[in-house]
């Protein structure tokens, strides 16, 4: 039984899902994978089911009826993994923008004392490949904006490549996490820090997808921009006590 599991949320990722599953499961360290698929009409779920015959004890699939957003997919996955007592629970995209070879580095950071390890694009300059400059600037200044409003020091606040120790996800009241896109990633980091968990950033190189379609939209960006202010104001009226 592995103590580490990678949650991969999917919607129409048939071009990438088999390759990313095989890549993660071929690492020298033993990781499990939970795919949370929002009933992809392109057959992503069917590909995962076929792969389960080969990796029956390491690859798991949760299928949801509706396309309900990244944040709710991860929260569904967090609860599934907590119930099965995994010690290290990861977030990772299906499109190879996150390099599976970096998973052991994130895990090692948590084994060595961090509660949450972030694969950061901006801790050592700007390490992004194949993004247009407009997208780089938007992402970089979004993280600057988050630091300005919230006071947290995380350089890559919108990063979606993360390792959590189970205690973090058991402590954060997941039913109170409100956002679903970029803002979900910000809210999780902000909340972990408010609970005084140790959050570290590990430098990675982020490579934009070469296959499939990006899920970024102006609605998601708008949620992040205004959601940060709402999140900060709401925090003034909450207590963050660890039991």
From TrEMBL:
| Keyword Iron-sulfur appears in the UniProt entry | no
Q: Does the keyword Glycosyltransferase apply?
A: yes
Task: Cite the Gene3D superfamilies for this sequence.
Answer: Spore Coat Polysaccharide Biosynthesis Protein SpsA, Chain A
Per the database record, which ranges form the Glycosyltransferase 2-like domain? 6-171
What domain of life does the native source organism fall in? Bacteria
Coiled-coil annotated residue ranges, if any:
none
List the CDD domains.
Answer: DPM1_like
Q: Which UniProt keywords apply?
A: Glycosyltransferase, Transferase
In which family does this protein belong, per the annotation? Belongs to the glycosyltransferase 2 family.
- Alphabetized PANTHER family for the sequence: DOLICHOL-PHOSPHATE MANNOSYLTRANSFERASE SUBUNIT 1
| Listed name of the protein | Polyprenol monophosphomannose synthase
User: What species is this protein from?
Assistant: Parapedobacter deserti
